[in-house]
Design a protein that fits this description.
With 236 residues, the protein is of the alpha/beta class. It contains 8 helices and 10 strands. Helix 2 packs across helix 3 and helix 4 packs antiparallel against helix 5. InterPro entries: AB_hydrolase_1, AB_hydrolase_fold, AB_hydrolase_sf.
Length: 236
């Protein structure tokens, strides 16, 4: 696969993204991928490969991977602007939108503001809301996950602190009458409750639910093949 590795500039920031344009079939609607909290674009190379010949574009949000790390600018609208920047730079005009975990509210709010651009949406194991995060959460995340697991190059500590400091609580509702796939893990650790599913069902008339019996939150780790097949089948 001959991936393009590019930067999109937005308000003085460089936002990194990967693009499978060179190997793609232009007759297929592309997909834009919004990773989870500490994930980077590079962690989705295998999904881009799997979805070929469909074009895929995946970004590293600010403070992650090869993207710049500003001192401030970590609320919902700032992450939405990262998606806007890479969509503009990549030149995709109509696309599917896939998001995982903390990427879900960023993607939903983007879709709320740019509905005509979205062919369908795939939301993985996260409710339709942007959560305000506590100081306790930031301390626990950094000290009990980020440092021990060695993911400080994926997401910087100052990014975690910025998200904790600036994030605001918001329930997100999108007027969207095209297909939506919700992927949910059924085991302990899933971040999507039955009440959350009802919220999705109320706002999306063409909702498809795919449940993963061997997974909690991180379906890509426990049932990657099944997840990728479900995504591909939905897009097809």
């Amino acid at each position: 696969m001959n991936l393009l590795s590019k930067m999109a500039q937005h308000n003085g920031l460089n936002i990194h993204f990967l693009d499978s344009f060179n190997d793609a079939d232009p007759s297929l609607t592309p997909i834009v991928i919004c990773p989870g909290l500490s994930e980077t674009a590079g962690e989705y190379v295998d999904l881009l490969q799997f979805l070929l010949p469909r074009r895929g574009v995946v970004l590293s949000f600010r403070g992650r991977g090869k993207s710049d790390t500003p001192q401030e600018g970590y609320d919902l609208e700032h992450h939405v602007s990262d998606i806007e920047a890479i969509v503009k730079e990549a030149g995709v005009e109509y696309f599917h939108l896939f998001a995982y975990s903390r990427g879900v509210p960023y993607a939903l709010e983007y879709a709320n503001q740019h509905t005509p651009l979205i062919a369908s949406m795939i939301m993985q194991d996260y409710p339709p809301e942007h959560k305000a995060m506590s100081t306790e959460w930031a301390d626990d995340y950094i000290n009990n996950y980020l440092i021990p697991v060695g993911r400080e190059m994926n997401i910087r500590q100052e990014t975690v602190r910025g998200i904790q400091r600036e994030s605001t609580q918001k329930s997100i509702s999108v007027n969207f009458d095209r297909p939506v796939l919700v992927a949910k893990g059924l085991l302990k650790g899933s971040l999507l409750t039955d009440n959350d599913l009802e919220r999705y069902k109320k706002q999306f008339p063409h909702l498809h639910l795919h449940e993963f019996t061997k997974s909690g939150h991180d379906i890509r780790r426990t049932e990657k093949a099944a997840l990728y097949s479900a995504i591909n089948d939905f897009l097809s």
